[in-house]
């Protein structure tokens, strides 16, 4: 059930996936292209399809195949409304952020495996007694295609190999309250997948042809992961509310204020992202279209979120009675490192 229900209308001449294209796009045209892309890729129906796919992925994890891309045909003439140098700086920032995917997946696996082994396996795969990865998770398999794809894009646009300065993933840091740790970590993961979704959609609005086709694949992956993480979080924390989220974010801000070098907080991530993406080189209209993309995507997420009622989520993922119990059906095969599992999860595994 890895089908994607995206409309595949044939493109008329002078049009691409975002609508009419021309070599000197103005801000208004870019805004219209963003709206078209959102209508095409980020719909409530599509998000519902992506969360409904999660139980299937626990049993039969299958990376979504990408369409054939004409890599050799990618060129600077496929960027409009933005200097190619600025575009390349954004691509480089994305590469540095995407690169440490193994670190991201293993930290997430450790936060999850005490409570939700199938989800831990979905993100981080299986590991041996020393914590070495035996088989990568589906999230990692899909995400690890992004860095090489963006590296090729950078090379095709600039004629040079990128000089990498990969971000260092924040390691698993338990505080003694695993439920609160998982909540904070999950919020952070959802925020980064949402950020990547908005970034690649926004970049698609300024591009066309084979370059846009690469970003389309990245975008579809990010929407899929964002939706699964968000929906799973809604199921795992049915009592979550705006107040709870605001409280966690405020706590992160206070922590950041006390320890300015603290890595991994949302504020740190936001600051790092804007620095990485060369925000300083963006024009006012780039900033406006970027922020408007975030607002428009959030509107759809919010509408979809209204449908994530406890009965609906329990119908998909199983009853949510006790956070220590793996309520939904477990996937086949070995799950995670048994020595690190909580007592309830261990009981489940030994059944
Ligand atoms: Fe990614
Ligand atoms: Fe991602």
Primary descriptors:
15 helices, mainly alpha, binds fe (ii) ion, two-stranded antiparallel sheet
Structure description:
The strands form 2 sheets. The protein has a two-stranded antiparallel sheet with strand order 1-2. The protein has a two-stranded antiparallel sheet with strand order 3-4. It is globular and about 55 Å long. It has 15 helices and 4 strands. β1 and β2 form a beta hairpin. The model is unreliable at 324-351 (pLDDT under 50). It has one domain. By secondary structure, the protein is mostly helical. α1 packs across α9 (178-205) and α10 packs across α14. It binds fe (ii) ion (2 copies). One fe (ii) ion binds at residues 143, 193, 196, 222, 225.
Strand content: under 5%
Biggest sheet statistics: 2 strands, antiparallel
* Number of DSSP-assigned strands: 4
Element-by-element helix/strand order? EEHHHHHHEEHHHHHHHHH
CA radius of gyration is: 20 Å
Mean pLDDT, rounded to whole units?
85
Small molecules (ligands, ions, cofactors) in the structure: fe (ii) ion
What's the N-to-C terminus distance? 28 Å
Poorly predicted residue ranges: 324-351
Structural domain tally: 1
- Rough outline: globular
- Structural class by helix and strand composition: mainly alpha
**Sheet with the most strands: spatial strand order:** 1-2
List the total number of helices.
Answer: 15
Helix coverage percent: 55-70%
